[in-house]
Amino acid sequence: MGSFFTLSIHMKSYIFAFILWLASSLSYSINTNKITNSFQQAVELAIQGGMDAQYDLAVLFYNGGTNNLNVNKAVKWYKLAAQQGHAQAQLHLGSMYFIGKGVEKDSTMALHWYRLAAQQGSDVAQNNLGNMYYNGDGVKTDITMATKWYQLAAQQGHMVAQFNLGSLYAKGDTGKIDTTLAMKWLELSAQQGHYKAQFNLALLYTQGQGVKANTETAIKWLQLSAKQGYAQAQFNLGVMYRRGEGIKADPIKALKLYRSSAEQGYMKAQYNLGVMYDNGQGVKVDSETAIKWYTLAAEQGQVNAQYNLGLIFEKGEDVRADSKRAISWYSLAAEQGFKAAQYNLGVMYANGTGVKRDYIKAYAWLNVAAIAGLDEAIISINKLTNMLTEKERIKAKSLSKEFSQKIKN
User: Fold this and answer.
1) Distance between CA 382 and CA 375 in Å, rounded?
2) Which pTM value belongs to this model?
């Protein structure tokens, strides 16, 4: 079953995620050197005002140590320790306010406690504070302050802060793009194993931004990111194996990488996987499986997949023809501005295939495709014009403008 389009090969552009330190990060190990063997003794130490004991007791209640899970009591003891200046307690309390666990969600309070912990040198709090200034959470967006806090955390070796700081410089959020600093911080983060930093480094080496282009190094970082399960890295590496870019072409490896990425819901990988099953690249032709992956991509809005499904169901190659489904998929692709889908949709309306014959809608879609420069549509428009009255042509042109406007929006 042949598809109108071949494999999409465009590398994904930068993905800059600013990862928040969420609930899972709240679980810390109890310092058994500070807490006595008796839970009661720990309570007594906390009641006496020992901030370390208060903190450790809060962790016990938060994690359910000694079968004492109680988030409300955890908040109580975190507060008491935090008010005495315990940095870890301030950090945890800030996170509880940020996610609304045990307390009402309150970004302003989260910012307050993060700042206190950050001022004491907590790299996690510094990174979280940077996130809040960057995203405008509980405070007005301030890139200068975000940069300051990311830098303080990054200088302490905080992997995510290094990634965030490198991303700021790569995007130019600081006022101008600085690929040298972007490379510095992304590489430090990548060396610690941050999969998105590894991926972004691969892009920089591929495109030669801030560094001399080096496909071999790009592949190295892509492989490290892909091994950690990052869908975009798996997809890009799959493209390189498929095309033999800087690496020996291997459609079987490409197929495996696309599948790993596609199973995580990555739209481009789903489409490319569909193409490989459709055309028998690295695998035996399997129309049913091709349709499965095209459909998953198409449902996410992948226009080539929508078009290919329309083509498959219109032609009925290796599957039962279904004109109504063809119309449905062509319509979705046409509404995204896909010229070939607009043309095929116009032809189906003109022929009454899978839909009631409608020369006005046929003219409207063919005209949209013709304006977009599709020669076949221009020829068909000329033929169809003579089949319409003047009144119908005016209506068809108006409908065509309406379709075009919707596409632009």
Assistant:
1) 11
2) 0.83
Amino acid at 101: K
Residue 158 token pair: 């905080």
For 29-70, what is each residue's pLDDT tens digit? 444 444 445 578 778 899 999 999 999 999 989 988 767 789
DSSP class per residue in 184-225:
HHHHHHHHTT-HHHHHHHHHHHHHTSSS---HHHHHHHHHHH
Q: What is the DSSP code (8-state) at residue 66?
A: G
Among 53, 100, 98, smallest CA distance to 80 is for 53
339 contacts: CB under 8 Å, gap ≥ 6: 369, 372, 373, 374, 377
Show the CA angle centred on residue 13, arms to residues 130 and 297, nearest 5°: 110
Position 24 scores a pLDDT of 33
Of 66-70, 128-132, 323-327, the one with minimum mean pLDDT is 66-70
Q: Reduced to 3 DSSP states, what percent helix, strand and coil does the chain have, rounded to the nearest 5?
A: 70, 0, 30
Cα 30 to Cα 337: distance, rounded to the nearest angstrom: 58
The CA R_g of the chain, rounded to the nearest whole Å, is 29
Whole-angstrom distance, CA of residue 350 vs CA of residue 213: 51
The HSE-up count of residue 399 (CA atoms within 13 Å, CB side) is 17
Torsions phi, psi for 30 (to 5 deg): -70, 140
Which residue type does 344 have? N
- Return d(Cα 55, Cα 35) in angstroms, integer: 10
CB 83 within 8 A of CB 117: no
Task: Report residue 42 as tokens.
Answer: 């720990």
Find out whether 189 and 197 touch, Cβ atoms under 8 Å.
yes
CB atoms within 10 A of CB 178: 16
Phi, then psi, of 207 in degrees rounded to 5: -90, -10
Tokens 């992948």 identify what position? 302
- What is the reported pLDDT for 38? 57
**What letter represents residue 197's amino acid?**
A
Find tokens 């993060």 and name the residue: 114
Query: In 183-214, which positions are buried (b, 16+ CB within 10 angstroms) versus exposed (e)?
Result: bbbbbbbbeeebbbbbbbbbbbbbeeebbeee
Q: At what angle do helices 179-191 and 195-207 cross, to 10 degrees?
A: 140
What percent of the chain lies above the pLDDT cut of 90?
82
Q: Return mean pLDDT, the chain.
A: 89
